[in-house]
Amino acid sequence: MADEFYSLVTDIGAIKQIESVRDGVPFDVYEIALGDSNGSYYTPQTNQTALRNEVWRGLIERCEWVDNKFYCVTTVPASVGGFTVREAGVFDSDNNLIVITKFPETTKQDPESGTVKQLTIRIELELSNSELAELVVNPNIQLVTKDELTETLTEIDGTYQKVEEKGQPLGYAPLDENNKIPFPFIPKLDTKSILTPFCLNSCRLDAKGNPNLLSCETVKVDKYTSTGLGVFYTELGYNFEKDGIVYADTELTIPKGTIVAVDTSTNYIAFGNIETLTEDENNPNHYSATNIGDFYIQSTLAVGVQCFSDSEFTNLIGVVTYLNLTKICISEDENYTYDGHITTHIYITAHAPFTYTTAQSKTHDVGEDLILDVVDLCPEAGQTRNFNLFVDNGDDGYELIALSNTIFTQMIEPDIYQTDDIWFKVLEPLNGYIYSNDIWNETTSVPIGYFLLEGGEE
Q1: pTM
Q2: Are 143 and 152 in contact (CB under 8 A)?
Q3: What confidence tens digit (pLDDT) does each residue in 351-402 have?
Q4: One-letter-per-residue 3-state SS of 285-340
Q5: Where a domain ends, among 318, 339, 360?
Q6: Is residue 346 part of a domain?
């Protein structure tokens, strides 16, 4: 009947299947032909060698498994049409009809009608033995076995997310207010980063959304000497006042003393810690302090009074430099002098957090600010010098490196180069090199900015 649609393996097709399984020779499928059955349906026969009235023929594009059935598939281009499909056949490369199909009536419109659509044709190929699928050959298509297809679909299902998972836990990554994927949601590979190599990948932004990685600050440091504390340093123009801190180094990183009292007109200064004061009720001259412990005085307790560690008043430990009802500081009475020596620092800071990837595709997340003093790189007065700023991960952690050099980004070794030049070799496997000691040495340094220094007065 006209509403019964099916495919039959022809006699020639059956013989080819037997030979293929028996001898292991290819069972090739090559083309699909369509026909209109001369205007009416008929009952296909296994001894057919051609369609009743062929109207179009095209190469098979692919073969596929669907619900344990094996199909050959082709597509009728949108530019072809003006016929009705009622029959179809699969042919091998020798033009043998190996499958004949009674096809559901399908109209392929003439392109000039304005209805331009391509038509996909799928014809079942009934295999006498499932192993035949591995022997189906067509140089124009790629074939997979049923097991390979199942394995591939399983891998896809386990690797890629489905649209319905969007917005769900472990689903698609969210977007921030700038329609960017927040960095924590970007996946990483253990062996090779997905981020751009030899590059700064992300950094903090300013209020306008522009990169705000680097800043520069010039700091001038004054040198002083006190009678008891010795040499100490402060920022240029530092105001001496209570609770102020002075430093033991010109970088102002090592605190040396805390000011508890100061008289700038006489250059009198006292350093120390303010401690909790306790009075001995039985002896008005006997006291104790949190850190100093017991101490004794000869008169009424007041600022400037000498303090001793013994009741015989033989071991002087300092004078009272600060006092209120419950707090006290006992320290040496010192004078300080200004040495007139000024030290200058030019600090370049790379502000965390930021992320960079080496030439070898290893990504690093920097969580703390990195600071580099470049004052020693300044040229002579009246001259200027350009520098590239690099970040690297050394034995002591992340560090900034300033080099007045050239960065080459190319596949082959540069022709003209000098010491400290860096070459990013853009040829797999990617790598970075720095020219030192007359050879190119591998480096993990990555450029993150550049700056210019002008020579002038110290």
Answers
A1: 0.52
A2: no
A3: 999 999 999 999 999 999 999 999 999 998 889 999 999 999 988 899 999 9
A4: CEEEECCCEEEECCCCCCCCCEEECCCCCCCEEEEEEEECCCEEEEECCEEEEEEE
A5: 339
A6: no
